[in-house]
Write a structure and sequence with these properties.
Layout (H helix, E strand, L loop, with lengths): L6 E5 L7 H10 L4 E7 L18 E7 L2 E6 L3 H12 L6 E8 L6 H4 L1 H11 L4 E6 L12 H14 L5 E7 L10 E4 L5 E4 L2 E5 L5 E5 L2 E4 L8 H6 L2 E8 L8 H7 L6
Parallel strand pairs: 1-2, 1-5, 2-4, 5-6, 6-7, 8-13
Antiparallel strand pairs: 3-4, 7-13, 9-12, 10-11
Helix pairs in contact: 2-4
């Protein structure tokens, strides 16, 4: 009987031609058959959005032994849905988002299309991981990430992940000649974005705005957070769950509705 290799579904929010996703495919292509389905171009900030009112298209961009690369005109989540429905010959053994150009730590995880990919896989009960690097440059150096990406991928393929839990893995940007200080499994840190909208004036007479912003770490001394880990040279691994219930608050709010109505 033929033994099938694991099937890995990969997507991102930087587009199918981005260096990060191309290097990710090269790093783990020996672990199984790979299907890439990623946006036609950048879709950063799309989170878990999907196209409920827009027709979608798929294009086969490249096919070689063990690897297919497709693009979709939709969001990162569209790409996962389309791949699972129309491309994958069987249920993937793993869904991977990344490698993202830029970190997805702290509250960035809520906005990230790369995390949207991973959460979509998790909601389908497929072991899912997001990889991100704190470097937005198009030509970012992803090579230092190779050993850990391979190790994490191998462990998830072998061990799986708990139901409803995915991994958000963020790598700090290393100074030349430096190595990662280690790996920290940590919680999402609290942070806020300010000065998010910049107003500009076009020479033709109208105003327009860019969404930009500055991130502020609201708990800089908390050493158990992803942001602290990255700021101190550690790889941050944050187990992330799709259940948004504030379980610790259920008792408190239950009391509200057991009191006599006034």
């Amino acid at each position: 009987m033929e033994i099938k290799r694991p099937l890995l579904l990969i997507s991102n929010d930087d587009g199918y031609q981005a260096k990060g996703i191309r290097q990710l495919v090269e790093m783990i292509s020996d672990y199984g058959d790979i299907i890439v389905c990623a946006p036609e171009d950048a879709r950063s900030g799309f989170s878990c959005a999907f196209s409920a009112t827009t027709p979608l298209r798929l294009y086969l961009r490249e096919k070689r032994e063990g690897v297919e690369i497709w693009s979709c005109n939709g969001t990162p989540v569209d790409c996962v849905k389309m791949a699972l429905s129309e491309i994958c010959p069987r249920r993937p053994d793993m869904v991977i988002g990344g490698i993202n150009h830029g970190d997805n730590a702290s509250v960035n995880a809520h906005y990230s299309g790369t995390m949207g990919v991973t959460l979509e896989g998790c909601m389908k009960y497929i072991p899912s991981v997001a990889f991100s690097l704190c470097d937005h440059r198009d030509d970012a150096d992803f090579e230092p990430l190779r050993p850990l990406i391979r190790e994490i991928t191998a462990m998830v393929l072998a061990e799986g992940l708990p139901k409803g839990v995915c991994l958000n893995v963020n790598f700090p940007l290393l100074e030349e000649g430096r190595d990662f200080r280690g790996v920290r499994v940590c919680r999402m840190g609290y942070g806020t974005w300010g000065n998010e909208v910049t107003k500009c004036h076009h020479p033709r007479g109208y105003d327009y705005w860019w969404m930009v912003g500055q991130y502020q770490n609201d708990e800089p001394d908390a050493e158990d957070t992803d942001r602290w880990a990255l700021d101190h040279g550690y790889v941050a691994i944050t187990p992330t769950q799709i259940d948004l219930t504030a379980h610790s608050a259920i008792a408190q709010f239950s009391e509200w509705f057991t009191r006599p109505l006034s």
